[in-house]
Write a structure and sequence with these properties.
One of its GO terms (molecular function) is transcription cis-regulatory region binding. Keywords: DNA-binding, Nucleus, Transcription, Transcription regulation. This is NAC domain-containing protein. InterPro entries: NAC-dom, NAC_dom_sf, SOG1-like. The chain is about 10% helix and about 25% strand. The chain is α+β, with helices and mostly antiparallel strands. The chain folds into 2 domains: about 1-65, no CATH class; about 70-220, Beta Complex (Metal Binding Protein, Guanine Nucleotide Exchange Factor, Chain A), CATH 2.170.150.80. Strands 3-7-6-5-4 form a 5-stranded antiparallel β-sheet. Strand 5 (about 170-180) and strand 6 form a beta hairpin. It is globular. The N and C termini lie far apart (about 65 Å).
């Protein structure tokens, strides 16, 4: 095999995605649990190149590189997910926007337990299906399941549903929700720092039962007041 000059690394989509997700954080690369170990056969001699014993770790990407799609880009990924407008999903998209297959959708667990979610201000995105709260009616499930012993925890919509346009045409909608906690003993619901931006296709105010949506989940950081210089 021909020798290569300069440092080279053998990576795959999982490692690229993991590096992008951790580029803005303080995660120690040595603590990352890699789910893959890419190999590649040499096109000349068919020898399988394996990086499992490589000491030099791929440095990843510069701090600040992150997956932060705009509202329009999120709607594009949603259109591609369902095959609308003859769009096809990007081959890496499952690494950045995983699909929640649970019957209760995004509400199957507290947001802090969703895969990859951190409380550092960074956002995580998920495909999931809209689920009705009851067998009859159109209200969607907002209550977090499985934690009844700690009280009532549910998402509450705040503000108006906003249209999202692509090329001048409305293709979807965005709504913002905040997680509230009510004590098991009752009383006024307490607002938490958990925020969710939810996107659905079409021009209707609400998503249809069973259709795919994208939820962007993050823990809103408390901004400390800046000290005034004397």
């Amino acid at each position: 095999c021909a020798s290569m000059t300069g440092p080279s690394w053998l990576v795959d989509q999982n490692r690229i995605a993991t590096k992008i997700r951790s580029a803005s954080g303080s995660l120690d690369p040595g603590e990352i649990n890699w789910k893959s170990n890419p190999t590649k056969p040499c096109p000349s001699c068919q020898y399988v190149i394996d990086n499992s014993d490589v000491i030099e770790v791929w440095p990843g990407l510069p701090r600040g590189v992150k997956f932060d799609p705009s509202d329009q880009e999120i709607i594009w990924h949603l259109l591609a997910k369902v095959g609308d407008d003859n769009l096809k999903p990007h081959p890496f998209i499952d690494e950045f926007i995983p699909t929640v297959e649970e019957e209760d959708g995004i509400c199957y667990t507290h947001p802090q337990n969703l895969p990859g979610v951190k409380q550092d201000g960074s956002a995580s995105h998920f495909f999931h299906r809209a689920v009705k709260a009851y067998a009859t009616g159109t209200r969607k499930r907002r209550k977090i399941q499985g934690i009844e012993d700690t009280g009532d925890v549910r998402w509450h919509k705040t503000g108006r549903t906003k249209p999202v346009n692509l090329d001048g045409l409305q293709k979807g909608c965005k709504k913002i929700m905040v997680l509230y906690l009510s004590s098991a003993k009752g009383g006024k619901a307490e607002k938490t720092n958990w925020v969710m931006h939810q996107y659905h296709l079409g021009t209707g105010e609400d998503e249809r039962d069973g259709e795919y949506v994208i939820s962007k989940v993050f823990y809103q950081q408390q901004h400390k007041p800046t000290e005034k210089s004397e």
